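Much of our argument rests on the idea that a fold can be written as discrete symbols. The amino acid sequence and the backbone structure tokens for this protein are reproduced below:

___
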Amino acid sequence: MDSHVDPARLHALLDRARRDLDRTEVENDTQLAARAAGGGDDIAQLQTAAALENLAVSLYTAALTLPALRGGDGTVTAFVTATRNQHADHAAAFNTAVTQAGGGVQTNPDPTYDRIVQNAPFATMDDVVVLAARLENVMTQTYVRSTADAGIPALRALFASVAAVEAQHQAVLLAAGALLQAAPATSLSLQPAVARLPAAVGWAGFPVAVTPVTNAAPPAEGAL
């Protein structure tokens, strides 16, 4: 199979994508403003999403300071760093949408889960994995529900795309948790001895076939 990508065609596709985005930007801004005037449900959901992302950034930033992350070959540190940066991008995206809708930017963490994080044990690798996986699950469920509740296509697409990333984060953390149950943290590696991996690693990351919303944060939990 020819894997060569023609540079000229690639640039043409990118230029077309930019034109499409420019053409829909005004339409999306108008729809967001209309939703804001109609009661602010979308604004509240976006602020709650931003609050959850702010908390995730704080959690992963704190995790990077723990001695437990300094062992092994740096796999966990690399994952935590990349994940933290992705959550920062998500927070910025949600706050950009809030601004377009006429709402205030949310810079604080989610109050409910911030209390849980502050009171949780946070000393070992297992502590980090369990707590982070729980938060990723809440975010995934919250955004899945918000995908259905959002009033305009632009916001539904935003929530759905971020939900998929958080689900991926959770899957990695659950698999890492299963591995930690069978081996020390220093065994975590990008190139593990597959034959010696515990069987649970193969399915732990996918505990359900369909994402529920029973643990979703209330729509206005992080609203200003």
In short: The chain is about 65% helix and 0% strand.
